[in-house]
Amino acid sequence: MLGRVNHIAIAVPDLKAASASYRDTLGAVVSEPQSLPEHGVTVVFVELPNTKVELLQPLGEASPIAAFLEKNPSGGMHHICYEVDDILAARDQLTASGARVLGNGEPKIGAHGKPVLFLHPKDFFGTLIELEQV
Amino acid sequence: MLGRVNHIAIAVPDLKAASASYRDTLGAVVSEPQSLPEHGVTVVFVELPNTKVELLQPLGEASPIAAFLEKNPSGGMHHICYEVDDILAARDQLTASGARVLGNGEPKIGAHGKPVLFLHPKDFFGTLIELEQV
């Protein structure tokens, strides 16, 4: 079921500083920040040769990463996104095996304009997993 | 400086259960467990098309992931490993820019038999970064 690692998401309290750190200190190619108000985040893409890291900063009220940053004020690794061919088939297979899908169980359109689902971190050893249909 | 994401490491309290979950529930290809007593971990490799996830369970006394699991008993994302061409050049550039290398600053031979260094998570927004010379 799991395909490529689409991205690793890192929540940060200061996107400008984090972006400068990945660009200047770590020598990576980073994008301009993109505000995604419908997802409650501003994102910078760190382009690596085989995948990407997404630096996320909360945007607006009720950001999905606000609680994480309250618990981890310096920031930290937030989730891993894997690509899947068929998100509904993946969901049905996962729920049949007892794994919990967050929200109402229906895929939403994610930050890349593609259907995504999140799996409950308690069912996967503390790791929040995003599935994205590509 | 940063090359490919070599792996994403996830610390887990129960490697057998985590391995079964990635294999049976998530449908990934997972390796047999490998005990690395000199690194204080037992590891299972989850092979993805573009990188790998390493599931780590503490092994022996003074495992480097024991404190993390005490703080995160269910497990969680532990570090990201990036490939670099020249680890000494990378280290010198990083320390010159003020980033802290863990330990005595000298590369050690990592779990893949190659020189590695870890960077202080406080200098990188809560993310523990491993550099591996490939």
Task: Describe what you observe in this structure.
Two copies of one chain form a homodimer. By secondary structure, the first copy, chain A, is α+β, with helices and mostly antiparallel strands. Chain A has a single domain (5-133), classed as Roll (2,3-Dihydroxybiphenyl 1,2-Dioxygenase, domain 1), CATH 3.10.180. Helices cover 20% and strands 35% of the residues of chain A. Chain A contains three helices and nine strands. Chain A has helices at residues 15-25, 66-71, 87-96, and strands at 5-11, 29-30, 34-36, 41-47, 52-58, 76-84, 108-109, 115-119, 129-133. In chain A, strands 1, 2, 3, 4, 5, 6, 7, 8 and 9 form a nine-stranded mixed sheet that branches. The longest helix of chain A is centred in the first third of the chain and has 11 residues, at 15-25. Chain A is globular, with a radius of gyration of 15 Å. The two termini of chain A are 13 Å apart. The model of chain A has no long low-confidence stretch (mean pLDDT 96). Chains A and B meet through strand 1, helix 1 and strand 6 of A and strand 1, helix 1 and strand 6 of B. Chains A, B: GO terms for molecular function: methylmalonyl-CoA epimerase activity. Chains A, B: It holds the Pfam family Glyoxalase_4. Chains A, B: Keywords: Isomerase, Metal-binding.
